[in-house]
Amino acid sequence: MSAKKKLKTSAMIASIAGADQPTTSAPFGHALVEAAKKNPKIVGMTADLGKYTDLHIFAQACPDRYYQMGMAEQLLMMAGAGMAREGFIPFVTTYSVFASRRAYDFICLAIAEEKLNVKIVSALPGLTTGYGPSHQATEDIAIFRGMPNLTIIDPCDAVDIEQSVQAMVDFDGPVYLRLLRGKVPRVLDRFEGYQFEIGKAKRLLDGEDALIISSGLMTMRAIEAADELRETGTNVGVLHCATIKPLDTDTILEEVRRYPERPVFVAENHSIIGGLGESIASLLMKEGISVKFSQIGLPDEFLDAGALPTLHDRYGISTKEVIKTLKQPVA
Amino acid sequence: MSQTATASRADVVEVLRQRAYKIRRHALRMGEVQGQGYVGQALGIADVLAVSYFRAMKLDPKNPDWEGRDRFLLSIGHYAIALYAALIEAGVISDEEIEDYGSDDSILPMSGMAGYTPGMEITGGSLGHGLGIGVGMALGLKRKESASRIFNLLSDGELNEGSTWEAVASAAHWKLDNLIAIVDVNDQQADDKSSTVLNYEPIADKWVAFGWETYRVDGNDLEALVEAFDSALASDANKPRVIICDTLMGRGVPFLEERDKNHFIRVDENEWSVALKQLDEVYGVQ
């Protein structure tokens, strides 16, 4: 008698892509190399996580513009601030947990208070590793939303990441980007004319039965869920809100008002505390808009270690679980 | 040869002594505006600032953002009163600003911030930021093949901050010979003596062990300071430099030197004139 084989933590540890998804390898690293060819001011800096933030691609292509700062995230942010002060555009990389929990004061005062041109690109946002709470940045957006001057981007896929790199170069000011690394799915290609823009939410699908407003990898899940539900006659709209701050309030309000009876689900790869969901709840409340409203996100707890697919099911952010949630009646 | 190089060491020191006196005087006048402040630190560090601004550094007072300048990073934001005094003496800030020190809408807030004050390169105050920013700027200057240098004034209390040591290690790793740290060792922190709060002695040994070219001098001995700064700047060592300066809080005003608690000094209204009078007496000004 053989027990069902358990999935291992190492399953999909480096990538959130499903087996059948088209992917691009290290989209951030390659996009940064392309941007750096055009702009000599770009430098790459990391805190001993070059290989794990896809910055190694840049390091190989532009070795003289790559700065290995060691496992010292506070220093990484300070040195990034110093580089920006001398006119460069540093892309600094680490994990989201270390940027947010450990280096907050240095991002706040050395970078954000002075609106310095530092781009903080951090891997393993939300639940994208099974390593447990030491590596799961379930609260990074909540931590950073209160920081003035800081733009927060939560891209969906390889397309979003590629486009956001150039957008960050063109944008003058500090940015925090939640990076998907390794083999990153490509899903936005199918939306003709899609263009990532800082501060803009984009309607991907129209549907009068429900609306999902989502960011990050949850936009992939939202699209997959909407596709499946359409086959059963339920039309779900998807609004991709890749910029968490500043929030594109005009587009969000316009979309919510288009079908006033439509329940609104906000889906994010982040704690339900302090992220996109609460941002939008607050917006709707301030505007006096009353809708059926539900959050799809991670619970307010330290999450389990384990295999990523298992954990996504357990915490309700897999496509299968998103569909279940969409089918439930919303209060 | 430059004028300073041909002048005798005694002449150089006498000129710097006058600068240090004026820096102390500007600081006392600002302290009087608020009735309190980090005057003890300003008096203690005035000689170091005089040597930095009037001997060691390149700057254009009329153009504080001149690309070719040396950058002075004040990570200890509460020492702003001291740096303002030096910037006033250097002609970067007008003497008239003293009247508004720490007042609403003043360019001289009580804690130093880059966005407010010409010549203030960074926002300090949250300790342990300056040296790391200095590492990034020094790397940036090297990228630009600039001959400018970074000076970072930090305090012995700032050695408590782990981020400072991340920067110390990094500067040595990158062989940043364009980075000069100046540590004000006055053995005073907010709660108690630095050596009691968290002892970092032997301080010099630690910097040496991290790979820095290290100098330790009496920070109120102008002759020793000139020698240390000259040596640090002339050195061809492929390393960052640190000048550890032992200073006396309140230096130059005898009744403040003797105060037990002088981390944050409160001076009664009638005492400011006494302080200025004592300072003048120490410097032989009638």
Automatic annotation (TrEMBL), chain A:
Residues 22-187 form the Transketolase-like pyrimidine-binding domain. InterPro entries: PDH/Transketolase, THDP-binding, Transketo_C/PFOR_II, Transketolase-like_Pyr-bd, Transketolase_C. Keywords: Thiamine pyrophosphate. The keyword Nucleotide-binding does not apply. SUPFAM superfamilies: Thiamin diphosphate-binding fold (THDP-binding), TK C-terminal domain-like. It comes from Vreelandella neptunia. The keyword Lipid biosynthesis does not apply. It comes from the Bacteria. This is Transketolase family protein. Gene3D superfamilies: 3.40.50.920, 3.40.50.970.
Automatic annotation (TrEMBL), chain B:
The keyword Nucleotidyltransferase does not apply. Keywords: Thiamine pyrophosphate. Signal peptide: none annotated. Residues 23-272 form the Transketolase N-terminal domain. Its cofactor is thiamine diphosphate. Pfam families: Transketolase_N. Belongs to the transketolase family. This is Transketolase. It comes from Vreelandella neptunia. The lineage of its organism: Bacteria, Pseudomonadati, Pseudomonadota, Gammaproteobacteria, Oceanospirillales.
